[in-house]
Amino acid sequence: MNRREFAKLGLMAGALGIGGIPLGITRAAGQTKGGTLNTIIQPEPPILVTALNQQQPTLTLGGKIYESLLRYDFDLKPLPGLAQSWDVSPDKLTYTFKLFPNITFHDGTPLTSEDVVFSITKILMENHARARNTFSRIEKAEAPDPLTVVFKLKTPFAPFLTAFDCTTAPIVPKHIYDGTDYRKNPANAKAIGSGPFKLKEWVRGSHVHLVKHEGYYRPGEPYLDEIIYRVIPDSASRSVALEQGTVQLTQWTDVELFEVPRLSKLPNLTMTTKGYEFFAPHTWLEINNRIAPMNDKRFRQAVMYAIDRKALLNRIYFGLGKVATGPVSSKTKFYEKDVKKYDFSPDKAKALLDEMGLKPGPDGKRVTIPFLVPPYGETHQRTAEFLRQSLARVGIDLQLQGIDVAGWADKFSNWDFSMTTTTVYQFGDPALGVSRSYVSSNIRKGILFSNTCGYSNPEVDRLFEEAAVATSDDKRQEHYSALQKIMVEEVPVAWLLEIDYPNFMDKRLKNVITTAIGVHDTFGTVSFG
């Protein structure tokens, strides 16, 4: 265990763009250090502080600003982050981390073990659904010296060492946040972290400009002088920007999936779906279990039968992924394939709705349900249209409602919705990325990516807990297999797809995807050759 993301952009690389920000690569030929990376952030995040917001754009950008103790390779084994080494006691209850020396925040203040303890036990516990679910298992957190952090757990927790990536456990400055209203702290606008890049400027609706942190603790890093995340709402303009070299990198849903086949053939670009192993993105139709008729599992089962998920994968996602079968991704440990199957069958869906007494009216409609369309690009809009047409065939009338990023997050997290779609990460282990969406203890109003659907089953709660603390993989598999079978029968949400997102990058770029965290990683070693 030792050492361890206007109109068509016709701007040419090197010209001046919005706000006078340079486009293209500003470096001398042959240099491996310096230069400007232009990329895209889509949609624009509501905030850059990853401890307070865990939406994908925040995490992608925030990973350059905030770091955590560890990173993870493509096999999900831990690598050094802020911690240069770590040890686990034989009883699996005590975890000791040794920090690198000379780490500083962007304001010049040293980062110490006290900042780690504060971040893990205070700000994350109150504001981060996934972190809360994990770090509530800590009995005591100590900082015996400035470079040592010790966590003592209440009981063994098998995936604890997998919980310290920059999206789960970003370390924030205690001297700025302690004793304040975290969400109203003025420093949120400055986003002060310890990563290789710091915030220089954020022009809303235009760009976020990061520059190198001169006091970064890793010698020689970062290689780049700056990163500019450009806000380009129009999907066609994003593709043109990539094609013309105005931006050199796209990630997640920056490029609409129908563009992937064409862009993959361009000689100046490389495309990979690597870098999502840690996240294993899982897309589903979120169903508010508190509201009739959605509080009846027969209705939720009917929804599953009514959706041709293979057609969704091929027509909307262009084959980039596979059909999901339940709450655990097939890319994640402890997946169970022997569960109830929901093949496309409108007849079975209609029979279940008839059984409930939801008979179609003269217009063929049985029930009308509002649907919040996630504001994350055309793929999500097309998915919403596909779902609307699918459910209309069995008499469920979806009323699509457009909304901005902040509004979607607010309504979703405060349970002010009936249906929406969401993409949630698995984080390498069901105890980290899956349980938070379904255990009743994580039904927390106002917290995004918690148990927003309101599903509650004491037996599922028990199995999740026992699987989390079991030290044998065989015993963990037994518990996870049992709970997957129960949940697929009860359908708290309608699981849709396991997505393989494309990353497009200029062929001159090096070291972009080096870990399972992918584009969320620090970019400290990214360079133009």
Please work out how many helical segments DSSP would assign. 14
Number of strands: 19
Sheet of most strands: 6 strands, mixed
Query: What is the topology, as strand order, of the major beta sheet?
Result: 14-18-13-17-15-16
What is the gyration radius calculated from CA atoms? 23 Å
User: Which overall shape is indicated by the principal axes computed on the Cα atoms?
Assistant: globular
Broad structural category: alpha+beta
N/C terminus separation: 33 Å
Classify the helix fraction into a percent range.
Answer: 25-40%
Oligomeric status: single chain
- Measured by DSSP, the beta-strand proportion falls in 15-25%
| Average pLDDT figure | 92
- Low-pLDDT stretches are 1-31
3D structure, described in words:
With 529 residues, this protein is α+β, with helices and mostly antiparallel strands. Helices cover 25% and strands 19% of the residues. The chain is built from 14 helices and 19 strands. The chain is globular and about 70 Å long. The model is unreliable at 1-31 (pLDDT under 50).
At a glance:
With about 525 residues, the protein is an alpha+beta fold.
Observed structural traits:
single chain, 529 residues, alpha+beta, six-stranded mixed β-sheet, four-stranded mixed β-sheet, 14 helices, 19 strands, SBP_5
Task: Set down the secondary structure blueprint.
Layout: E1 36-40, H1 56-62, E2 70-72, E3 78-80, E4 83-88, E5 94-99, H2 113-127, H3 129-135, E6 138-145, E7 148-153, H4 174-177, E8 197-203, E9 207-212, E10 226-230, H5 235-244, E11 249-250, H6 260-263, E12 269-272, E13 282-287, H7 297-306, H8 309-315, E14 321-323, H9 346-356, E15 367-372, H10 378-392, E16 396-401, H11 405-413, E17 419-424, H12 430-433, H13 458-469, H14 473-490, E18 494-499, E19 503-506
Parallel strand pairs: 1-10, 15-16, 15-17
Antiparallel strand pairs: 2-3, 4-5, 5-7, 6-7, 8-9, 9-10, 11-19, 12-19, 13-17, 13-18, 14-18
